């Protein structure tokens, strides 16, 4: 295992499906003070709405169906994102469902804190590890997998 420190200032992804954007905005506004001081990334429309609502800078990526979910997944792999709040809609089929599943898988694989609804988001953002304490996150070493023997 490799240990990666999550410091008090974190790189956070914020993603919300269309039917969850209002919920994400209300949640973010409620926790505006706690989100300040962190580096925020978001998929396209969510990022624009968060900037307007919170009056903070958000690094906006592409819209989820246009590759934004994949961009965030790549950033998690590159250790450019350390935490994710992803309010996904369990009742609505998404045109980019494989991307959504891949993003959630990458979040688990790289052992980042992920919240998928307001309850889990409230628990994460009120944890002492969010703003008060550093946290040592354990990540698997992938050397064995990368160097595995592949039959020819």
Task: Supply the key terms.
five-stranded parallel beta sheet; EC 4.2.3.3; methylglyoxal synthase activity; 152 residues; Methylglyoxal_synth_AS; 8 helices; Methylgl_synth; two-stranded antiparallel ribbon; Methylglyoxal synthase; alpha/beta; Rossmann fold; globular
Describe the protein.
The chain is an alpha/beta fold and 152 residues long. It has a single domain (2-141), classed as Rossmann fold, CATH 3.40.50. 43% of the residues lie in helices and 19% in strands. It is built from 8 helices and 7 strands, in the order ββααβαβαβαβααβα. Strands 4-3-2-5-6 form a 5-stranded parallel β-sheet, with helices on both faces. α3 (44-54) links the parallel β3 (39-42) and β4 (59-60). α1 (21-30) runs parallel beside α3 (44-54) and α4 (68-77) runs parallel beside α5 (97-109). The longest helix has 13 residues, at 97-109. The radius of gyration is 16 Å and the shape is globular. The two termini are 30 Å apart.
SSE arrangement:
Blueprint: E1 2-6, E2 11-16, H1 21-30, H2 32-35, E3 39-42, H3 44-54, E4 59-60, H4 68-77, E5 83-87, H5 97-109, E6 114-115, H6 118-126, H7 128-131, E7 135-139, H8 143-146
Helix pairs in contact: 1-3, 4-5
Q: Briefly note the structural class of the backbone.
A: alpha/beta
The domain count comes to 1
- Shape category: globular
Share of β-strand residues = 15-25%
Task: Give a nutshell description of this structure.
One of its GO terms (biological process) is methylglyoxal biosynthetic process. The protein is α/β, with parallel strands linked by helices and 152 residues long.
């Amino acid at each position: 295992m490799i240990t990666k420190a999550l410091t008090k200032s974190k790189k956070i992804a914020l993603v919300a499906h269309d039917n969850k954007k209002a919920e994400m905005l209300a949640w973010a506004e409620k926790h505006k003070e706690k989100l300040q001081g962190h580096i925020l990334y978001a998929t396209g429309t969510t990022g624009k709405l968060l900037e307007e609502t919170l009056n903070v800078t958000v690094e906006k990526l592409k819209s989820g169906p246009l590759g934004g979910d994949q961009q965030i997944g790549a950033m998690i792999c590159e250790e450019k994102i350390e935490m994710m709040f992803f309010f996904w809609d369990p009742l609505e089929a998404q045109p980019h469902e494989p991307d959504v599943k891949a993003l959630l898988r990458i979040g688990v694989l790289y052992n980042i804190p992920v919240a998928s609804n307001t309850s889990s988001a409230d628990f994460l953002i009120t944890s002492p590890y969010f703003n008060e304490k550093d946290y040592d996150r354990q990540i698997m070493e992938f050397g064995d997998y990368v160097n595995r023997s592949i039959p020819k």
